[in-house]
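[Q] Does anyone have a clean structure-token version of this?
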Amino acid sequence: MRFFGNIEAKTDAKGRAFLPAVFRKVLSMSGEDSLILRKDIFEPCLVLYPQSVWNERMDTLRQRLSRWNRRDQMIYRQFVTDVETITLDGNGRFLIPKRYMKMANIEQQIRFTGMDDCIEIWATESEEQPFMSAEEFSKAMEETMGTEDFLFPNDQYSATETSKSKVERV
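[A] Here you go.
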């Protein structure tokens, strides 16, 4: 299950939003019918997890934290207590509770961002930007991935160019 793309939308007066059709299709094809909503740990946005993804994250977290360590229990408690189970109505809408809208500074305009196995919801009015500049992004990708051909590993031309550049650097 993979979610990709940015889709702008808006909430109605009650805080309801339509989950974009492209994301509903991914959920449907995966047999998912409920989502978990949580405020992101690092950023001022909300995160929608398909139930199966949430369960995997919970299992991983539980394995890494001891029930007999006070700090671990506090981490676990804080992570799991402020969540909402979300079910889409027949039209593909869901309610964003008011406290979550406040946490993410959402007034009405929102952006759904596919983040592989989950979906982020950002306030489009916010000055917080979830993206790097093009220059920062390219530099970060180069540092993270190196100069290996990760996009087209079987491309002979790219492999030759990479080999040449390695030789030139030596």
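[Q] Thanks! Anything notable?
[A] Confidence is low (pLDDT under 50) at residues 162-170.
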